[in-house]
Specification:
By secondary structure, the chain is of the alpha/beta class. It is built from 16 helices and 17 strands. Helix 14 (355-363) links the parallel strand 15 and strand 16.
Length: 408
Amino acid sequence: MQSGVDWLDSLQGRGIRPGLDNIRGLLEGLGQPQRGYRTIHVAGSDGKGSVCCILESILRESGLRVGMFNSPHILKINECIRIDGKDIDDDSLDNVLEKVRKVSESGDIPCTNFEALTACAFLAFSEADVDIAVIETGMGGRLDSTNVLEPDATVINNISLEHTAFLGDTIEKIAAEKAGIMKPGVPCVTIENAGSKVIEQHAKELGCPITVVRPDDVRIISNSVNGLEFSYKGEDYILSMPGRYQGRNAAVAIETVRRLKDADSIESYIREGLMKVHWPYRMEKLDGCPIVLDVTHTKLGSECLAQDIAEIYGKIILVTAMLDDKDLDGVAANLSEVASKVYVSSPDSPRAASAERLAECYRGYHDDVTVCATVGDAVEQALKNDGIILVTGSFRTAEDCLRWLRRM
């Protein structure tokens, strides 16, 4: 008999179908599990996963039982559903998958992989009796399958060009889609960015209290491989993740906590929560080898990454592979600045950009670009050089690198 995970994998062929009818049907059949706990709903192009993880850490430190839903996974689908800081176990995942599958099949609901996974997460959090869940959108916001919540707060982090075939070909169009998670009367926290005017106007139309984090209010004290010291509005904090941009993500999380109805009982745990965040593969130096692994895949994200890599490591050897719907040239322009050599490949994904196309982008900015058949081959070639190796470009690139390292 087909396992629950195999069934979920089989839904990949249905692709991406923005809309809320399927998820509403699934949740109706499951008894509306998402209504049994509080939620914070998080969207954005860059850093939304980091904001979710920071929020999770702060909320857990305050004594709450916390669920977190994020995607995509790196090595195992369980990573997408976390309960009290731990990936859902296989038995619990199989249990909720089977329930979602039965509703899908009995109700003739042709759900996609992400719709089914979303329903699994909402059900898992209900069955685990969480107090609050931090929910990351998959893509966009307005028609994302997570947009069926009645959240305590919403978050819209930085906006950049991504998923243009679905969300629109301008920052303004993409911002409008992500603003679709906002709810009348529900506080929203965002950060000043190219899409801010659209978000602020939408908040005004909805009657939605909005807080805008100003990047200039975040001052970096020190940035190292071990983490970040920063000041926000005159208060000093220590974050256990490196990267200047993480200071802005932390500021967004801090403001979100302050907008919760029980903020008075949570705020005192902000500092402890920041110091205990663990978010894998965000500029993470792997133990026992000279590899820094990262999942950056947008132009703005790569600009921030390049600045941080230069500050902490200087010049690096770059291994990169990306998906086809990303700004390949924009990312190449930024990362070429910090690379002594560039090894490009194609990730193991049906949405992969060809290695030759990515190499063509890099050759516009760098003289030493080598095309490799796989990410593993690229890592192997890079390791023949002395120096730090940065592997980045997508979640699937990180997965390919880790699987190659495990075989060694």
